[in-house]
Amino acid sequence: MKMRRSDREIVVHDEIMAVVERCDVCRLAFNDTKEGVPYILPLNFGVAEGVDGSVTLYFHGATEGYKYDVIARDPRAAFEMDCEHRLVSNSERGHCTMEYESVVGRGTVEIIHERDKKIEALTILTDRYHDGHFEFNQQAVDRTTVMALHVEAMTAKRRKVKGE
Fold it and tell me: Is the pLDDT of residue 164 over 60?
């Protein structure tokens, strides 16, 4: 799809990944075929890049919940994350806008069952939110569900006010 505001599009992969790194929440949207409406979740996430440029987002949660029923019916998901928000107002002109950076995309969610892969994904996720490596409680691995979203497509935008 062509972006309507192509002047705001971020096209360089490394710049898109830099925006991803600045975001701290990723929203996953699923096609809830049972309810007939989208199902969206805000989640903490980890990110890994393959040598081929592929991107995988990792999420974690309890061992049961409605999201797993939705994923079992349709593992396709859209995602959105945003950061760098700043309100820019000009009261004399009655004008305001918001600066931001955002990434949106889609992919397929896989539930990770293998313990070693779960530990790897949880390490990526927890290290993202800490300065340096975080040694999490290994007993939590068996009572945690780990999901990998294999990104199939993503785009990014940046809105910065000129002259500021």
Answer: no
